[in-house]
Amino acid sequence: MVLRRKPDALISVLPKLREESKYQGQDKLPVIIWMIIQASRGDLAVGLYMWAHHLLPIVGGKNCNPQSRDLILQLVEWILSASKARTILVNAAVRKGERLVPPASFEILMRVTFPASSSRVKATERFEAIYPTVKEVGLAGSHGSKAMKQVSVQIFHFAFKAAGDGTPELSKEAAGIVIWSLNQNAECYRIWEKAYLDNLEASVAVLRRLSEDWKQHSAKLTTLDPLRETVKNFRNKNEKAMSNGADAVRQSLFQEADKYCKHISGKLSRGHGCLKALAFLVVAFAVGAAVVTPNIDPSDWSKLSEAIGTADWDKLSEALSTADWNKLSKVFSS
C-alpha cells in the first residue's frame, strides 16, 4: 500500500538495489518485480523507470537465464498493456530531469531486439513487440532543447557504433536512430564527419538508409543545409581516398559510400531547385500585387527579399505566412 501511495519511494531505494549484494541474485527478482508492480499501480511511469534502469540491464548481462528474462518481459508487457500506457509514458518521458529510458538502457533494448539471426531466442519476438513503444519513450523530448541535444549526442555514439556492427537488422535500425540524432543536434553532423574514415562501415549503413528511404527521412529533417554540407565533404573524402589507392575492401566501401552520396546530393539539388522555382513564383506574384496594390506593408517585402536571397525555406515559409495576402489576393479579383 505504501508503494501505491508513494511510488517515488521505490526510485529513492534504487541505488541500494543496485549496490548491495543482499538485493542481488535471481532469487530476489520476483520480490523486486512485485514491488515495481505495486509502485506502477500508483504511477505507471515509475514502473517503466525501474524496469529500464534496474531490470533491463540484467537482460543485457551474460548471466541472465530464460526464467529471469521471462519475468522481466512479463513486467514490461503488463506496464505497456495498461490503459493509455503509451500516452502516459511518452508524456512522462523525462521525470524530474531523468529519462524513463536512458540512452544506456535504450542501447541494451535495441541490441536484444535486433540480435544476429544465430542469436535469436524465443524471447526475441516479445522484445520486438515492446520495442516500438519503449523506443518512442526513449526518444521523446522537446526538440531543440539543451537536454535533448545532450541526449541525442549520447544516442548518436552508440547507434553509430551499432550501425557498423555487421548485423543487417541491427544496422538498419541503428542507422535510422543516427538520422534521428542528426536532426536533433547539428553537432552530430560534425561528430560524424570526424568519425567517417575510421568507421566507414557505419557511415555506409547510414548513407544507405538515407538514400533508400529518402522520402521518409527527408520529410522529418527540420533543415537540409547541414546534410548538404556533410555529404559534400564526404564526397571529397571519398574521391581523395579512392585516388590514393586504398586496399580492395576499403576501396569497395568508398565506392558504395560515394554511390549513396551522389544519390543524396541529387535529391538535395532537386529540392533546392524546387525552392528556387517557388521563390521565382513568389516574386512574380508579389510584383503583380505591387502593380495593382501598392500599399503592401514594407516589412512583408523585406522578409520575402531576405528569404529569396538566402534560399532559406524556413524564412520563406515565415514570410509567406506573415505577409498580408488579403491585399495580394486583390491581384486576382481586379
UniProtKB/TrEMBL annotation:
GO terms for cellular component: endoplasmic reticulum; Golgi apparatus. Pfam families: TMEM214 (PF10151). It comes from the Eukaryota. This is Transmembrane protein. The lineage of its organism: Eukaryota, Viridiplantae, Streptophyta, Embryophyta, Tracheophyta.
